[in-house]
Amino acid sequence: MEKDPITTEEMRILELNAQFLGVTHSMLMQNAGREVARVVAKTSKVKEKHIAILCGLGGNGGDGIVAARYLDEAGAFVDVYLLGDERTIRNEDTLHNWEILNNLHDILASELLTESAVKSCRAIKEADILIDGIMGFGLRSKLREPLLTAVKMINKSAAIKYSIDIPSGIDSESGVVHGAAVKADHTIALHAPKTGMTNAKEFVGNLHVVSIGIPKEAGYTCGPGDLRPFIQPRDLHAKKGDFGRILVVGGSDVYSGAPALAGMAALRTGADLVSVLAPEPVVSAIRSYSPNLMVTSLGTQVLLPETVETVIEHASNNHVVALGPGLGLEQQTKVAVTSIVEQLIKSKTPLVLDADGLKAMASSELNLNSDLTVMTPHWGELSILMDHDLGDDTSLPNRVDQAIACAKKYNSVILLKGPVDVVAEPNGKFKLNRTGVPAMTVGGTGDVLTGIVAALLATDVPAFLAASAGAFVSGMAGELAFDERGDHVVATDCIENIHSVFDM
Question: 206 and 292 share a domain?
Fold first, then answer.
C-alpha cells in the first residue's frame, strides 16, 4: 500500500477525526495489532518460534500487546514484556488489552521495571523474533530508562527484529535519533510512513505500510483533530497580546452588528485583543455591544480610499485583519478594499475576507497568498467572485469543484459556507465540514465564523488549517446553541458556545 509520509500532527488529526466519525481508538488498536501479526507471520516463520514483544505504556505498546494474541493463535510461543509498572499505563485501551493478557495462560506477560531487569531478561537474548512496541510516533526527547536499555538489548540480539509504526528512539518528525534507536529488519508503518523515517532509512529496514481502518473520509472531514494545534496550555510567562491581536475592519453608515459579532467571536475563540475600525456613524453602536472591543473611528461615513493608510497603520499593530463585515457596497468602498488587500498581501499580513469585502475583490485580479488568506463566501458570493453561473448549488461535488476553482483563481483558501462547508486551497486539497444546523441561517453567524477563523489564524498556523478548524468550531457552537434554544438561535448564542467546543 503506497502512501506518502505524513507528519506526527497529521496522524494525530486523522486519528481524532476518525474517532469523530465513530471509529474508536480501541478499534484502531485492534486493527493495528492484527496487522502487525499478519506482517510478521507473512515475512517470518512463526509456528513454534519464540517471539518476545517489548511494549511501552502508551498506544504503541498496546498495538504490540494485541499482536501477541494473534501470534499466539498462529502457533508462536509469545512473551510480552511491559517496560514499566502496569499501574502507570496511561492509555485505557492499552490497559484493557494488558488485562486480557493477564487472563491468558499461554502468553507470558510480565513487567520489566528497571534497567537491570531488562539486562537480565533471557527472552530478549534468546528469542527468534523480537517486536519493538516501545515508542510510536511523537518522540521528542532522549529515551528514558529502562526503555533506552531495552533498545540497546534489542540491537544486540540475533533475532529478526520488527518495529511497530517507527523504530523506537527515532523522532517521527525529523528522523533524529534520541540516544539510541532500534535497528529494525522490518518496520510496520500504521496507516502511512512517518516523515522522520525518510531521514532514518538505515534503522527502518524493510518497510511495510498497513491499513488500520482509518476511513478515507477522515482525511477530508473537519473534526476535533483540527483543533489539536489550538488546544495547548499557555505559558506561565505569557503577556497580553501573545495569543492574537485582531483588527476587524467593517461597518458602514447602516451596518453596525456585523463587525461587533466578528470581534466578539474572535475574543471568545481565544484572541487576546480585538480592535474594530469602523466608520463614524456606527462607532458608538459597536462600542455599546461589548466593553471588550476597542473601537476606533475611520472619521468618515463609510470606508473610503482616503482612509486606507489609517487601516494599514492599524493593521501593522495587529496579527490578523478581518476585512468586510458590514462594509456596504459603495463604489469608493470597493476601491478602498482592493487597495487595502493589495498592501496587506505585500506586508504578508494574515487576512480573512468576508461579506462585502469579498464582493469588492471580484473585479480586482489580485493574487493573494494561500498560506495567509481565507475568503469565506456563500454560494451567491462565490458566483460573484467567479463571475459566471456555477451550476447546481445542491451538488456537493460541484460545490467542491467550484471552491477549488475559486481558490486557484485568487490563490487563497476558500471556506465556502453552506449545509456542508467546503474548505479548499489552490493545490486541490479540500475538507468538508458537516457540523452546524439549519437554525444557523439567522443573520450574523457568518460574521461569527469570520471572527473565529481570524483568531485561529493569529496562532501562526497555515490558513487551510485555521479555516478547517474554524468551520468545525462555528458549526459545533451552533449545534450546542440549538440544543439549548432550538430554532430560536441568534448569532450571539453561537458566540457563547464557542468555548464549549474547545472543552469537548
Answer: no
- Cβ neighbours of residue 9 closer than 8 Å, sequence gap 6 or more: 228, 229
* Cell numbers placing 459: 496562532
- Same domain? 204 vs 230: no
Residue after which a domain boundary falls, among 192, 220, 248: 220
Q: What is the DSSP string of 295-362?
A: EEE-SSSS--GGGHHHHHHHHTTSSEEEE-TT----HHHHHHHHHHHHHHHHTT--EEE-THHHHHHT
What one-letter code names the amino acid at 311?
Answer: V
Three-state DSSP class for 177? strand
Report the range of poorest mean pLDDT among 157-161, 172-176, 260-264, 395-399: 172-176
* Cβ atoms 219, 14 nearer than 8 A: yes
Instruction: State the Cα–Cα distance between residues 61 and 29, nearest whole angstrom.
Output: 10
Do 102 and 29 sit in the same domain of this protein?
Answer: yes
C-alpha cell at 211: 491499513
User: Does residue 228 share a domain with residue 157?
Assistant: no
The answer as to whether 1 is a domain residue is no
Do the Cβ atoms of 478 and 436 come closer than 8 Å? yes
When pLDDT is averaged across residues 56-66 and rounded to a whole number, the result is 97
How far, in Å, CA of 329 to CA of 359, rounded? 8
Domain that holds residue 495: 224-502
Whether 3 maps to a domain, the answer reads no
pLDDT in tens, 393-419: 999 999 999 999 999 999 999 999 999
Residues 368 and 391 occupy one common structural domain: yes
Cis ω for the linkage preceding 229 (within 30 of 0): no
| Global pTM exceeds 0.70 | yes
